[in-house]
Automatic annotation (TrEMBL):
GO terms for biological process: tryptophanyl-tRNA aminoacylation. GO terms for cellular component: cytoplasm. Belongs to the class-I aminoacyl-tRNA synthetase family. PROSITE patterns: AA_TRNA_LIGASE_I, WHEP_TRS_1, WHEP_TRS_2. GO terms for molecular function: ATP binding; tryptophan-tRNA ligase activity. Residues 13-69 form the WHEP-TRS domain. InterPro entries: aa-tRNA-synth_I_CS (IPR001412), aa-tRNA-synth_Ic (IPR002305), Rossmann-like_a/b/a_fold (IPR014729), Trp-tRNA-ligase (IPR002306), uS15_NS1_RNA-bd_sf (IPR009068), WHEP-TRS_dom (IPR000738). It holds the Pfam family tRNA-synt_1b. This is Tryptophan--tRNA ligase, cytoplasmic. The keyword Transferase does not apply. Its EC number is 6.1.1.2. It comes from Erithacus rubecula. Keywords: Aminoacyl-tRNA synthetase, ATP-binding, Ligase, Nucleotide-binding, Phosphoprotein, Protein biosynthesis.
Length: 473
């Protein structure tokens, strides 16, 4: 049936079509290698071309070997995506809603817990200060076991922080700062160790780049991370390509995780197919391993029972759902998580930022002029078509990207509320709101650039050298 031109290709899902193209391609290669009759090879090639055409018609994408249409596959047990359902997995974020992803639905789908007022109030009592504006504004909106972390803190039991960065490009954008800004605040208020994983191995496996380039990007991204103000005595930054070869504890945890996750499970969680390279299939265990303190014997003095708290965007949650499932079976505590919303592209919350599109976000290398031009030209507006209509009906802060960006980067709650009221009422025009954002982002990026200039290769080496930190365990 595979090479029958009469089969109903329209009934196949994008993933099924992808697998059919892959199978037919393998058949063509086998026929050629076996020196089959020319008419048989020609028929198989025609079928292959027909399948590729059906694939492109269905997905809008050219078939690429080893790159299944993950944007059309839901990460939750591989079930098909409904028309009105957001797509969220570690590689793709898609929504048709101009307001962005429906996070309440995502909490239900992922099975996490909402960060509610009670939890925020408890955190405030524990740390004795006002919670970060990312918490107050719902930018970090979901959690797993944060109450356990607060129990540990209140009982003077240790825990540590773990976050990471996939170094896919040399220049990071302002959205990449969100987890690091928040993690820095967490580290300061709780005074705990922090490990930061640079998944250069992942980027080599997923992207069209050399292993040397992936490692180079990791070193460059480390400079931007260090420029956020982390304390070298309390923070360890590591490249997977470096650290995996030097830490027996890290590798042992990877192997333990690998033994307890089946191929079918990893396919169901991440949407992998039989055509994915084995590096991708084994990678989730590498991202899981830093969740266990025994991966860092130099920091934790070999102790294995210290809980980990992971601040990250919610698209990374599948890795840690898997980790939390495995942890009890290998005698480790489950990591706790704090999930953030996604940072919107300038063109709107339903579009995706891309390192290959310099206009999709504000990059940390942008000049003040570039920042001004990008915001004025590309920031999606929630304003009306004319000034008269805007004055009469007001703007929509729910879809206005300038207001969304200010929600992330303008720390003054009262000022933000004033802007919201003025824009919603029509008193403040889109151009005026964009001006406020420009005046907020220009000094923020300039200050980051100045701090980054001070980060030498020697400082990077200090952060990335396995060592004891300023804590006793």
């Amino acid at each position: 049936m595979a090479d029958s031109p009469n089969c109903d290709l329209k009934s196949l899902s994008p993933l099924q079509l992808f697998e059919r193209v892959t199978e037919q391609g393998e058949k063509v290669r086998a026929l050629k290698a076996g020196k089959a009759p020319k008419d048989e090879i020609d028929a198989a090639v025609r079928m292959l071309l027909s399948l590729k055409l059906s694939y492109k018609t269905t997905t809008g994408q050219d078939y690429q070997a080893g790159l299944p249409p993950k944007d059309l596959v839901l990460i939750n047990n591989g079930t098909a995506k409904e028309e009105d359902e957001d797509l969220v997995d570690p590689w793709n974020v898609q929504t048709s809603n101009a307001k962005g992803v429906d996070y309440d639905k995502l909490i239900v789908r992922f099975g996490s817990s909402k960060i509610d007022t009670d939890l925020i109030n408890r955190l405030e009592r524990a740390i004795g200060q006002k919670p970060h504006h990312f918490l107050r504004r719902g930018i970090f909106f979901s959690h797993r076991d944060m109450d356990q972390v607060l129990d540990a803190y209140e009982n003077k039991k240790p825990f540590y922080l773990y976050t990471g960065r996939g170094p896919s490009s040399q220049a990071m954008h302002v959205g990449h700062l969100i987890p690091f800004m928040f993690t820095k605040w967490l580290q300061e208020v709780f005074d705990v160790p922090l490990v930061i994983q640079l998944t250069d191995d992942e980027k080599y496996l997923w992207k069209d780049m050399t292993i040397e380039k992936a490692y180079e990007y990791a070193k460059e991204n480390a400079k931007d991370i260090i420029a956020c103000g982390f304390d070298v005595n309390k923070t360890f930054i590591f490249s997977d390509l470096d650290y995996l070869g030097t830490s027996a504890g890290f590798y042992r945890n990877i192997v333990k995780v690998q033994k307890h996750v089946t191929f079918n499970q990893v396919k169901g969680i991440f949407g992998f197919t039989d055509s994915d390279c084995i590096g991708k299939i084994s990678f989730p265990a590498i991202q899981a391993a830093p969740s266990f303190s025994s991966s860092f014997p130099q920091i934790f003095n070999g102790k294995e029972n210290i809980q980990c708290l992971i601040p990250c965007a919610i698209d990374q949650d599948p890795y840690f759902r898997m980790t939390r499932d495995v942890a009890p079976r290998i005698g480790q505590p489950k990591p706790a998580l704090l999930h953030s919303v996604f940072f919107p592209a300038l063109q709107g919350a339903q579009t995706k930022m891309s390192a290959s599109d310099p206009n999709s976000s504000i990059f940390l290398t942008d000049t003040p002029k570039q920042i001004k031009t990008k915001i004025n030209k590309h920031a999606f507006s929630g304003g009306r078509d004319t000034i008269e209509e805007h004055r009469k009906y007001g703007g929509n802060c729910d879809v206005d990207v300038s207001f969304m960006y200010l929600t992330f980067f303008l720390e003054d709650d009262d000022r933000l509320e004033q802007l919201k009221q003025a824009y919603t009422s029509g008193e403040l025009l889109t151009g005026e709101l964009k001006k406020v954002l420009i005046e907020t982002m220009q000094p923020l990026v300039a200050a980051h650039q100045e701090r980054r200039k001070q980060v030498t290769d020697e400082i990077v080496k200090q952060f990335m050298t396995p060592r004891k930190l300023a804590f006793e365990f």
